[in-house]
User: What shape does this take?
Amino acid sequence: MTREKCFGWVSSVALQFLALGALGVSPLMSYDDLPEPHNAIPIRDYVPVIEIPSAPVAPRRAEATPGKAPSPVAIPRGFVAPSVIPIEILPETGLFDEVPEGIPFGTSSGVPGSTGDAPALKNEEAPPPPEPVRVGGKITAPRKRHHVNPAYPPVAVAARVQGIVVLEATIDENGNVVNARILLSIPLLDGAALEAVRQWSYEPTLLNGSPVPILMSVSVRFELGR
Assistant: This one.
């Protein structure tokens, strides 16, 4: 066999193998003829759908009234912020349901803000006494119900001093003389006049049907016998 014939025979065999290989590979290169796999699961059905709850809308804060400070919001002790966002908001329970024993609702000693009667204030100052009314006009001088004669001072007797001492007396609602001061003085006789007037008493003076204290002038006469 010559060299040319040997080369031709080898080339022919190689071409045949290439032809056979092309025939076997060509069906695999077609995408339209691929078989449908069994139990195929679409990707959209395989990925789980996660629903995210919408966040609750916070209530709108009331606008503050000018000139008035907003009232503080009471936060109960032990309040813990939620770790997850709830789907719905339920009303709080158990915060103010229990009341300590012995403290009823609706009384002044109960829950703050109750409408019960307020307790009486301790050490409450007494109202000031009414101002005395001066005798005159519709207020007439009361009638005396107890009289005490003044004691004539020996010094005034020895000096032959006599006359009238005029005083202004304050008489309370019961008709008792609670104060007196000298308006027209006789020095040797003033002390005896004051001591006597402070022991006098009068009938109560009425104003619109109610007893009132009054101011009135009284005279004490000192006269030596012959």
